[in-house]
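## tool: complex_structure
## caller: assistant
## args:
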Amino acid sequence: MNRRLFLQKIGAALLTLGLPFGFFTKKPAAAAINNEKLGGKPWYGMGVDIDKCIGCAKCMEACKIENDVPKEPFVFRTWVERYVITRDGTVGVTSIGTATNPSTEAVVEKDILRSFFVPKLCNQCANPACVQVCPVGATFQTEDGVVLVDDKRCIGCQYCIQACPYGARYLHPVKKTADKCTFCYHRISKGLLPACVEVCPTQARVFGDVNSVASPLARLKRMNKIHVLKPHLNTEPKVYYANLDGEVK
Amino acid sequence: MNQAMIERLTELAKEVQGYIYPNDLDVHWSILIVVYPYLTGLVAGAFILASLVKVFNVKEVQPTYRLSLLTALAFLLIAPLPLLLHLGHPERGYEVLITPNPTSAMAMFGFVYAWYLMAVLLLEIWFAYRKDLILYARQERGLMKWTHRALALFSNDVSAEAVEFDHKAVKVITIIGIPSAFLLHGYVGFIFGSIKANPWWSSVLMPIVFLFSAIVSGIALVILLYMVTTPFRGQPIDMKCLDKMASFLFYAVIIDFSLEALDFIHRLYESEESIKILSALVMNKLIISLLVMQVLLGMIAPLGIMVAIKLWNLNDELRRLLYFVSVLLIQLGIFSTRWNVVIGGQMFSKSLMGLTTYKMEIMGLEGLLTAVALLLLPFFVLAVLIKILPPWDTPAPSPAPEGATV
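## result:
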């Protein structure tokens, strides 16, 4: 075998080996934001400052009214969890106004180590597991980074509900299709804020373009240590928490 | 939201232990989704048994070859029904077939199913039966004659070369069929195993465990069918055949048991974040269905029985009785396995801090009665198939009509 033939064979082998890998390599979402999404298109996210949330649940109420979410306390696009960590290390969690864990047993104040509220909603992941698993592509990510459900396409298989690590999805009991937070897409596409952000009396929730340099979201991210929920699952959430406690799941 | 649903969910909410995310209250995948992997498992298992005859030349199992194929077909035809009935919008179900999302494991259903049905099962059955269909048609009159002629696709060649070609074709299809059967059920395991949000499901072993439990359940079902149908035909049960099938069943159960034990030990040893909630799940919600029904009754008891049969020289009648009990126990065990995966995986919240519960409806589209009906339906389909394509008798050769190639 001469040198030319040898090099040709090596080249062909490398190409064959490399093709499948190149095919399946996904562009990291962060790269997509910085390069392509900067061309004028926003890439939406939300910021939540745990220290500012007073657990008034106005956001939950506003969300249900704004988005026609069934009013019964069984399905939610957003909810607020109350954490009470006592001196013996017990972590007590309840969620205000829901049917599942409504009771808040009185805890003697001197026993409380720390206590706080955590607003939860769809994390509008940059790498959404729900979009990956939807068999018909009814749930999708918009160009501005919001994960939506097309209720005219959704077949109601509920695979996305199983795939969401955050419990942010539910089967709409009337429509029989998957439903979830849309960041109030009908509002933000008109330049308005999501309903929950609008009504929050303490500005614990802020909304905006992740890439903007001057916005409440940018400020929150600049002034605080930021954490996201379940980062080990590599869903790349775009709901950024300031002052999040390690106990929060 | 209607009143019945509110009442149901209110009752369910009272059963919550610990903290669950509010949307995690309801179990979304009901008993119908337990039935689905159970049915496809039987398909894959029955096919693997059939392939033992053709590919691995296990002559003893020959009497059940065609029965296995027909069983696989009957169960495969019914397998998509529980999926369809479970959808929020069954009328949109066809979307999965015409506009599948390529990144979705579930969307591959259409391709895997169509491949297995068209390219493997129907084709193999056609080649396996072609000669007999022609011979039947020659002896019959009226509707049956035309049914058999049509099923033979109006072929009329029973010459030695043609039959030899049939045999070769069957062999090739079976060789393609084995990985296809693995694909069919491994893929169902992948649907669960690839959900990283759910620590009970998310395991690379899931497709393999599904596969071996499928083989176990499929072989056990064919043994059961063989033992029930043979006396009805007034024929003696071929003990060599039964012993051989039971032998394969025994090895499959051992592999299945080892894999599940490995999964269990691995989880315990790694003791990840989810271990506390999974332990709570097993101890609070799955103690009967996992420890008693799946492990004790569904695996250890039949294994014990089969070891006893291998150790002691028991007479035929006692062996038959013991095999019969074993295969029934195995069916119970494998159904429990499916239950523990599907329902068990939804009884803890993704908060990993609390448990919900599953209250099965009796009536209703997703209730117990529908599930029982779906489990019985394949047997009716099988009865029809057996009527049209008799798996045990071969027709006597008859004079060929004018112009036919003999």
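## assistant note: Confidence is low (pLDDT under 50) at residues 21-37 of chain A. Chain A has eight helices and eleven strands. Handing back to user.
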